[in-house]
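YM 10:42: AAA family ATPase sequence, as discussed on the call
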Amino acid sequence: MYEAFYELKHRPFLMTADPDFLYWSNTHTLAFTMLRYGVTSRAPLTVITGEIGSGKTTLLRHLMNELPEDVVVGLVSNMQEGRGDLLHWVMMSFDQSFEDVSYVRNFQRFQEFLIENYAEGKRSILIVDEAQNMSPASLEELRMLSNINADKDELLQIILVGQPQLRDLLRRPELVQVVQRIAADFHIEALGAEDVYDYIQRRLEIAGARWQIFPRRTCELIHEATGGIPRLVNSLCDLCLVYGFSDDQKTITEEVLRDFLAGVEKHGIFDKFKPLGRSPVLVSQSH
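YM 10:58: structure's back
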């Protein structure tokens, strides 16, 4: 829509999780280090949490892209309690068929699948995204799955990724045995103001920007309006580019941003962005 106007190769602020646009803030670097450590150390359970839109899924995609061929990954990203048995979801994530038979029979089939992978020199990793939606009973069932082993080697590693509510869930007394299995964990914090500036400039650079479309002051206000949540930063920047295009503005200045947010406050349906403080007033001093 606006790409030609800003001389961009493609839209820089899409909402989809794209590893090509991954910005390595300090907190994202540490989170990925813990993910990689969990994989390489064969940790039975790794937990990564962060606010909605903090970049958790993007980190997962990047991790999956770099895993070696001897790692078999099952990804569960849309499981909901009450919609099918957990074991069925797990088996489906590994492309394993299951039958409407006893739990014991399906468990045996899944165990045989893990043993076969192990015999072929492969590792099996189960990744559960949006794990905060799980019940305590389901988390305990995952712990039992992680207990499947051969000699001294565990046959299934589990990575749980979710919103901050997952941390609260894991603190429940009945999940103490699950917590004892956690070998690596990290909470992704929101981006600071400087990171938001670098984040915006990096995405624009990848998209082929030829001038500074978002000046530093505008980026500071974007951080204020979004709280440093990458998904909200993407949403606001994308909408600002649409607004700037419609108003023939090659640069998203502070004034353009404030005008846009004022329109959102008046006509928008959802209050996604925080209100901005007043623009500083410059006072000249006579000598």
